[in-house]
Every structure is written in C-alpha cells, then in structure tokens.
C-alpha cells in the first residue's frame, strides 16, 4: 500500500521555461487562428487530452507545443490569468 504524505509538494519552473511557455502559447494561438480554428477550444482539447492532433502543424505549432510538458503550459496559463509571479 502506498503511503500518502501530509506535506505539500513544491512545484517550480525556472524563468527560461516560463518565457518559453509564453512564446509557445502565443505562437500556437496565432497559427490556429490563421488556419481558421478556434484557438481556445483547440488548445484546451490538447491540454486536457494530450493529443497533439488538436494543434495544427502550420508554422510548426504542433512541434513547438510538444517541446514543453502540459503542466508547464498550464502553469503559464494560470500565471498569466492571475497576473502573479
């Protein structure tokens, strides 16, 4: 049986990964928009499922988004939404 810890785990992403996530999210958003997709719906589909086919290959958007883990992308989205560092 696995023992569950009572302590809160710390999760940290370095500054370089923060910048990379922001650039990738913006680039992917623009590529999806240019191809006529609803970028929000497509990105949510990817973040929930992990299926890269939600992201267009146009302008290498699919390759870019797969360079980072989904948790790193989610962290950037939350940070941006809350405008927190």
Which secondary structure elements does this structure contain, and how are they paired or packed?
Layout: H1 15-34, H2 39-49, H3 61-65, H4 70-82
Helix pairs in contact: 1-2, 1-4
Structural descriptors:
single chain; 85 residues
| Element-level helix/strand string | HHHH
Number of structural units classed as domains: 1
Largest beta-sheet details: none
Q: In terms of per-residue confidence, which ranges show pLDDT below 50 for 5 or more consecutive residues?
A: none
Counted by DSSP, the helix tally is: 4
What share of the residues lie within helices?
A: 55-70%
Q: Helix/strand/pairing class, anyone?
A: mainly alpha
Give the total of beta strands: 0
Mean pLDDT: 87
Kindly provide the radius of gyration, computed on alpha-carbon positions and rounded to a whole number of angstroms.
Answer: 15 Å
Structural write-up:
By secondary structure, the chain is an all-alpha fold. The chain has one domain (15-82). It contains 4 helices and no strands.
Summarize this, please?
This protein is mostly helical and 85 residues long. It has helices at residues 15-34, 39-49, 61-65, 70-82.
